[in-house]
Amino acid sequence: MDDILNRQIPHSTEAEQSVLGSMLIDSRCVAGVVGVLSPSDFYSDVNRGIYETILSMFNYSVPVDAVTVLDRMRERGVWSEDSPRYIIELANITPTAVNVMEYAAIVRDKSLLRALADAGADITGMAIDGEGGASNILEAAEKRIYALRRGRAVNGLEPVASVLISVFEQIQEASKNAGGIPGLSTGFSDIDNYIMGLNDTDLILIASRPGMGKTSIALNIALHVARESGKAVAVFSLEMSKEQLALRMLSSESYIDNKKLQTGRLSADEWKKLAAAVESINRARLLINDNPSITVSAINAQCRRVDELGLVVIDYLQLMQSATDKGSYSGETRTQVVADISRMMKIMAKELKVPVICMSQLSRANEGRADKRPLLSDLRESGAIEQDADVVIGLYRDDYYNEASDQPNVAELRILKNRRGNTGMIKLLWLPEYTAYTAIERRYSDEDEY
After folding, report:
1. Helices 13-25 & 83-93 angle (0-180, nearest 10)
2. Does the active-site annotation cover 239?
3. 3-state SS string over 84-124?
4. Distance of CA 341 to the CA centre of its chain
5. Taking a C-beta distance cutoff of 8 angstroms, is the pair 372, 366 a contact?
């Protein structure tokens, strides 16, 4: 009981006073401080009132010193008889303004600790009340923590000179690769040439109608990246189980018919191929999560714990959930939810500094057109997906709609949006029995060696 009574809410009176004192003795500190602290970061009501006063003066370009601050405090109604003494004390107890940003960092850290404590208390309250069920409470908790972390991020203006240095270093690094692509290879050279590989912070959408094979091409890319780069690849499947994904990877890696693998009726040679495929896949750092109700914040949290993460694959966007008080959505609300999820995924890609590939369903809009090739406007439920994505690839197979097609098992990867280059179209060969894609000019037979 004594421990509970003696436990204090996180704060640092000395740091708060030093921040205010620094601004009073050197007004040049104000611009730096207002960029990282908000009034709510101050625990003391008195200190918060003084900071709000200084902030309002800064906004109107009013000079900041002890006299002007006291005068403005009178105008704002936050002045008291102790104010003159306290303002003078603040200026006197601050040894130097040189360390003002270190003082501000302490204030900010204590504020975050208080916010975490408040969030924890609210989450505990929700859990005890039990309203909405455990799943909805968990999602609300994840969203609360995710929003809290996002709210603490500070990105200020940078001189273009420092940005140019970073870009120049990237160009130098690319030159060492004999003019190759800057990002991770997808395993398909034609795709790499269009999008410059899979680049850090990029959100890449692969969209199609159901049954076109978008999961298969995503797995092909994931396995190639994991094997060739040596980095970890995290795959989040909201539709298929871990076992189904593994079966697909074995089929595409061994070039053994998927149906044969499911029945286990394999020849002696096929068992050898299967063993070689298992060994090859085992060497790749491929991580799978098949939680069907995972959220972006949970994905973000799990990926942060992965060492040397190279790529995140999510299958697929419309199945993802967001924290909500209701278990179902109206059409309009669901559109906003998908927009929020799309934005959070782009933010996650930037925070993790890795490419994120996400599958997306297309609406039925193309079904009513004579030419059923996908358009950006076909992205299901939200135009925000188009806005957030750096690359959008629409997957189309003519034989999906036309059994008499003169191009059976030929897939068109239509680059509908590309921030790194031009749009266009690439053709790949679809191998349905192996649930795999390959370059159009490459053919495989059961006699392939490993």
Report:
1. 90
2. yes
3. HHHHHHHHHHCCCCCCHHHHHHHHHHHHHHHHHHHHHHHHH
4. 9
5. yes
Q: How far apart are CA 124 and CA 122, in angstroms?
A: 5
Nearest to 24 by CA among 80, 70, 82, 60: 70
Dist CA 142 CA 123 (whole Å): 10
Query: Residue 36 half-sphere exposure, CB side, CA atoms within 13 Å?
Result: 17
In three-state secondary structure terms, 392 is: strand
- State the alpha helices, DSSP H only, in 258-378: 258-263, 268-282, 296-304, 331-352
Closest CA to 415 of 376, 370, 359: 376
Q: Is the dihedral of CA 439, 445, 446, 450 positive or negative?
A: negative
Question: Could you report the per-residue pLDDT of 198-222, keeping only the tens digit for each?
Answer: 888 899 998 888 878 888 888 889 9
The Cα 286–Cα 227 span in angstroms is: 9
Which domains, and CATH codes, for the chain? 2-104 (1.10.860.10), 182-439 (3.40.50.300)
Task: Name every residue whose Cβ is closer than 8 Å to that of residue 41 and which is 6 or more positions away in sequence.
Answer: 107, 108, 110, 111
Fill in the amino acid letter for 278.
Answer: V
Give the span between the Cα atoms of 205 and 345, in whole angstroms. 11
Residues 6+ apart with CB under 8 A from 101: 32, 33, 36
Distance CA 356, CA 41 (A): 33
Given a contact cutoff of 8 angstroms between Cβ atoms, the answer to whether 193 and 391 are in contact is no
Catalytic residue among 89, 139, 169, 239: 239
pLDDT at 314: 92
Q: How far is CA 134 from CA 140, 145, 286, 359, in A?
A: 10, 16, 30, 28
Q: What angle do CA 346, 351, 354 make, to 5 degrees?
A: 75
d(CA 337, CA 322) in angstroms, rounded, equals 7
Can you tell me whether residue 415 is helix, strand or coil? strand
pLDDT digits (tens, 9 = 90+) for 235-264: 998 888 888 888 888 888 888 888 888 888
Please compute the mean of the pLDDT values over residues 427-445 and round it to a whole number. Answer: 75
**CA–CA gap between residue 339 and residue 345 (Å, rounded):** 10
* Distance in angstroms (rounded) separating the CA atoms of residues 420 and 430: 26
Task: Of 106, 81, 109, 80, give the one whose Cα is nearest residue 20.
Answer: 106
For residue 185, which phi and psi values (nearest 5 degrees)?
A: -75, 140
User: Do 200 and 420 contact (CB within 8 A), yes or no?
Assistant: no
Provide the token pair at 399.
Answer: 């034989």
Q: Which two tokens stand for residue 21?
A: 């004192």
Instruction: Specify the pTM.
Output: 0.65
Between the CA of residue 358 and those of 247, 389, 432, what are the distances in Å?
21, 10, 21
